[in-house]
Specification:
Transcription Regulator spoIIAA; single chain; 32% strand; alpha/beta
């Protein structure tokens, strides 16, 4: 699993790739919460995620709640097929704001 951060248009894009599971989700959680603690709107790019389990989903939910409580923008972008299936199964596609492109997501949260 790899995480890349990039400041774009007033938001931090957190690009996650690989597998987000019990062993890697704490790193995703810590990265997202750190961005939020710094007062940044966050776009999570999931285009490179091949697999996500419940611990990874929990990290996304926790970050979403933290951003919401601070009045910061938080959304998902370019969600690949497998993570989208997991989000839909948990009905979290109804909770998260999900954009097809990074440009749409950045414009929405910045």
């Amino acid at each position: 699993m790899d995480i890349a951060l990039q400041d774009q248009g007033g938001a931090v894009v957190v690009a996650v790739s690989g597998e987000v599971d019990l062993s890697t989700s704490p790193k995703v959680r810590d990265t997202l919460l750190d961005c939020i603690a710094r007062g940044s709107a966050v776009v999570v790019d999931l285009s490179g995620v091949a697999y996500i389990d419940s611990s990874g989903v929990a990290s996304l939910v926790e970050a979403y709640q933290a951003a919401k409580s601070k009045g910061l923008g938080f959304c998902l972008a370019q969600v690949s097929e497998t993570p989208m299936r997991v989000l839909k199964l948990a009905r979290l596609d109804q909770v998260f704001i999900i954009h097809d492109t990074l440009d749409e997501a950045i414009a929405a949260v910045a």
